[in-house]
Structures
1.
Amino acid sequence: MSVPLKKYELVTDKAREWKGRQWVGDFLIVLRNDTEDLQLMFDVQGSDEDFIDIPRIDFGENSVVIEGAKEFQKVFLKHSALANGIIRVIIGRKDSTYTLRPADTLGKTPVIYNVTLTAADTEYPQTLPLGTKKFTLKERDGGAFRLAFTKGLVAAPTEPYFTILENQAYWEDDLLLSNKTLYFAGAGQQTIEIIAWT
């Protein structure tokens, strides 16, 4: 039985000094890196000679694949602060499978939304465009907020809802959405930035 790949996305508005993430796998693929000085270590914070330098990678260009000497349980990251930057990675195991998508399933047209959460613990909706194939969202200043795909859950809040933590982004691809609405709530005076591709 194959193991699905895990995907993660981090915003780079704040610097990381060997910040550890609980990413478990046999290999790591860097799909996007907006920083100029990203470095990675597996499992332990070793000497300065143990890190791996990651070049700047625009999404859609050549990705970087790193195989661990053995299954790793944690990945440490170090980089300088970069406003509005993204690091996007995939973590996999030896029995993970990945299928290349045909060109007509890839998003070609981006649409940007800025959703203003004026009041705290108040629900704000945003409908994605017809035929959305992928989207990414984050809070402009790195604040935490709540997300739901059903109306009436995020304000109180009432489960089930999803929390995007500080300095993190959320993304999905391999989609084909029709009039899907996202619902947001947070601490107030926040802006949710969304890029949807059709």
Note: The chain has no helices and 16 strands.
2.
Amino acid sequence: MVLVQSLTLSASSKAVHAGYLLKLGEGALAAYKRRYFVLQDNTLFYFADEKTARSNGQANGFIPMGATSTTVKKTEKQAFGFELAAAQLGKRNFQLAAEDESSLLKWLQVIKLINVRRVKTIITSVVEELERRGYAGVEGIFRISGGKDTINALKKDYDLGWCCPSLPLRSLFRCILYSTTDWWWRWWWAVSTGNYPQLSDISDIHALTGVLKLAIRELPEPLLTHSLYSSFVKLRTCYLCLWVCASRPICSDV
């Protein structure tokens, strides 16, 4: 994973999406201002304008995308508004607004895709660790619950690792300013690993499967998807010998 050391875009990474959004500032007299947003390295940067972003200028700020969620909040003044929740990562929730319906849908789709990729990363790394350990003889590997504290700590580590491109230098300033244990820990983690949690250090194998199940529950849409649910239910009426052939086209659409 690339560690971003400044508020400038990385020349070696491709932007996932970019465009103008309205962003609500802080304070009692806050107003919406037009900013140019660029999603890169799992971090959403915002600039004063597109020219500044393209000329490798300094961004006004950033939003880490680890475990973020979106909620559409349309009002009379902002017909295409939405909230980006990032408080669990040490940032406030952001009130944003697109300029039209198509732009709003595109941003929601891209952010949803980022969240799906995050879950895919968790699932892949956990499964690889389970295979490395050899889990065939473990009783109730997906049935028995792991330690709640360990699962929550793993989830937090994944979320910090997912957004660690924006952590090292910027959170160091927060550590100096606020002197909080949590921010010191975040900065140490990003600098010392620059990656996801070391699963080999977790002795509770049920905690590993627990964080995997938690990641699946947090998917924006169920694994079998709402649109294909009725098709999967109809498979129950198929004969066993025809089930594989009948399920193949449905599974390919997932």
Note: Helices lie at 50-54, 101-133, 148-162, 168-178, 181-192, 205-217, 229-234, 240-252.
3.
Amino acid sequence: MSKRGAEKTVLVIEDDLDIRDAIQEILQDEGYSVFTADNGVVALDVLGRIPRPGLVLLDLMMPEMDGHQFLEVLRADPRFTSVPVVVVSAGITVVPAIAGHIRKPFDTEVLLKTVRRFYASPDSDRNFGERGSTAGSGTGP
């Protein structure tokens, strides 16, 4: 698939319905095509039915298949090794092969700034396995 097909597609994997719906609404209002899943098992099924996403927003603590397990399966699939994954969680996050972290609760502007970062440059489709940056919650001073 061409990079163009993934330019505005985001997969949100979050078990909390309110958070999942809020992220979906915020991103759709900004013109992103958003697909959702409430755990890693559902997310793998969704990945088989949608255009290759340009970004995955991933919660870690979920039933059935948590974010760590999902990320391991995702990175083992050559079709998705270059898809950047941003972890969205309340705790301290040390996860290999992620492109960033958004701390819950998050500010809408922090979410949008983080997502936009992956669509702003021609390098947005590269492999983020060695890169790890952190986005704060925007709730501090």
Note: The domain at 3-125 is CATH 3.40.50.2300 (Rossmann fold).
